[in-house]
Amino acid sequence: MAILDVLTEVARTGRLGPVFIGADLSEVTAVAGEPWDAGSMSRRRQWPRLFGYGDLELSVCRCRRVNLVCIQTWRDVVELPPSLAGGSGTFPAAIGFADVVSALEQAGCPWQPHPSLTFGDQCSLVATPSATTFTFEILQGSGPVLNVVGLPGDGHDCPTGR
């Protein structure tokens, strides 16, 4: 599977296999294995924590629900768990704006500009079926290049351990 196929499927469904907003971390690890633990996202609290699988990053609540998903695409290669993305899980990066738009349109996935994330040297679009955002860095002389793909949080207010 090509990286644009993976990202288009995320845009259409809001999922990367068992990874989606609200997913239970144990169901993700059952398919993808144990992630690396990048630590707490706050200096004052242990949760939520950031977990990662290569360039796939998950913010996880203390109740072990996924509440934010990001795929970093700004590096030289994009690494995703092969069990989720198919093949080796390693893909070339430097994905252009026109390539993303073309892939979304070929998949019948509607999108629109995302004005609140378009400013300075970045622009963004949102795939409307899943609210997946594609944020691009605008490089001098080469046009916008995909920097990050993200699924929006659901505003989860964890009832565990308040």
What does this structure look like?
The chain is α+β, with helices and mostly antiparallel strands. It has one domain. The protein has 4 helices and 10 strands. The protein has helices at residues 3-13, 25-32, 82-85, 97-106; strands spanning 36-40, 49-53, 56-60, 66-72, 77-79, 90-92, 111-113, 122-127, 132-139, 143-151. It has an 8-stranded antiparallel beta sheet with strand order 1-2-3-4-10-9-8-7, covered by helices on one side. The longest helix has 11 residues, at 3-13. It is globular. The protein starts with a helix and ends in an 11-residue tail after the last strand. The mean pLDDT is 90.
Report the span from N to C terminus: 42 Å
Global Rg: 16 Å
Instruction: Assign the structural class, choosing from mainly alpha, mainly beta, alpha/beta, alpha+beta, or little secondary structure.
Output: alpha+beta
Q: Beta-strand percentage?
A: 25-35%
Strand order of the largest sheet: 1-2-3-4-10-9-8-7
Oligomeric assembly: single chain
Q: Give the tally of structural domains.
A: 1
The helix/strand order is HHEEEEEHEHEEEE
Total strands:
10
**Major pleated sheet:** 8 strands, antiparallel
Regions with little confidence, pLDDT below 50 for 5+ residues = none
Spatial shape: globular
Instruction: Please tally the helical runs, counting DSSP H or I stretches of 4 or more residues.
Output: 4
Secondary structure layout plus pairing:
Layout lengths: L2 H11 L11 H8 L3 E5 L8 E5 L2 E5 L5 E7 L4 E3 L2 H4 L4 E3 L4 H10 L4 E3 L8 E6 L4 E8 L3 E9 L11
Antiparallel strand pairs: 1-2, 2-3, 3-4, 4-10, 5-6, 7-8, 8-9, 9-10
Helix pairs in contact: 1-4
